UniProtKB/TrEMBL annotation:
The organism of origin for this protein: Brachionus plicatilis (Marine rotifer)
A Pfam family per the record: CAP
Taxonomy of the source species: Eukaryota, Metazoa, Spiralia, Gnathifera, Rotifera
Annotated transmembrane regions: 12-39
Keywords noted in UniProt: Membrane, Transmembrane, Transmembrane helix
CDD domains: CAP_GAPR1-like (cd05382)
Stated name of the protein: Golgi-associated plant pathogenesis-related 1
Domain SCP: 97-234
PANTHER family: CYSTEINE-RICH SECRETORY PROTEIN-RELATED
């Protein structure tokens, strides 16, 4: 090969080497700039990803944090009223009708899964109502703090919550929404997407109470408290049964 040929080959090799070096340097520089950009940003709040809150809603966020903090130490102090149906007033008739409808639909569904009927508890309903009203105040669907749910006989309560937008929440509609998760349940252990359904038909739960409240912008929040609580790891096989084949 001539001297000119060797020179051209070396030049081509040098051009390729320089191009690769520039490309590698560009990638390193780009990654460094990207890292510095994101490290300077505020951390992402997962709650904001699924709500309509933004950085300007500081007053709402502060209100929510205060209500959660205060609720942990709150104790409504309600007592069981075994004669609640005899003490209905015009003001609470609609709410109690909602509760009785929810109880009936709950027990209809439970019967289809070999679970005994739930007994209505006025005390649990007062707790559920308290939490539904708190959700309506901050206008956000959120479970109550686990510490707060220890106030019933010192034992934890199971809890289901629901939100509707645009129509009044009824006892049947609320129960139907929770039961609709059944079509996604595999009857193994706990599944995050079917927790409301499995708590609803949990065979060992014996008592239940219901509450609902309306937010200022017209959303309805519903809550149910169950005793004893369900969704306990390791106990699903003896508490969550498939639909009866009639």
């Amino acid at each position: 090969m001539s001297e000119i040929g060797y020179t051209n080959a070396w030049l081509q090799f040098w051009y390729v080497f320089v191009a690769l070096g520039v490309g590698l340097l560009s990638i390193i520089l780009f990654n460094a700039i990207t890292f510095c950009y994101f490290i300077r940003r505020k951390p992402i709040d997962p709650v904001r990803l699924f709500t309509d809150l933004n950085d300007e809603d500081e007053s709402l966020l502060q209100k929510e944090e205060e209500f959660i903090e205060n609720s942990i130490g709150a104790n409504p102090g309600f007592e069981e009223d075994e004669n609640f149906e005899e003490n209905l007033s015009p003001e609470n008739y609609d709410l109690n009708q909602f509760r009785m409808e929810a109880l009936e639909v709950h027990n209809d569904y439970r019967a289809k899964h070999y679970a005994p009927p739930l007994q209505y508890s006025e005390e649990l309903s007062q707790y559920a109502q308290y939490w539904a009203e708190n959700m309506a105040k901050v206008n956000k669907l959120v479970h109550s703090p686990s510490e707060w749910r220890l106030k019933f006989n010192g034992e934890p309560l199971g809890e289901n919550v629901v939100l509707t937008n645009g129509f009044k929440l009824g006892g049947k509609g609320m129960s139907d929404m929770w039961y609709s998760e059944s079509y996604k349940h595999s009857y193994q252990e706990l599944q995050k997407e079917t927790k409301s359904y499995t708590q609803m038909i949990w065979a060992s739960s014996r008592k239940v109470g219901f509450g609902r409240a309306k937010s200022e912008d017209g959303k309805w929040y519903g809550c149910a408290h169950y005793y004893p609580e369900g969704n306990i790891i390791g106990l699903f096989r003896n508490n969550v049964y498939p639909l009866q084949q009639l």
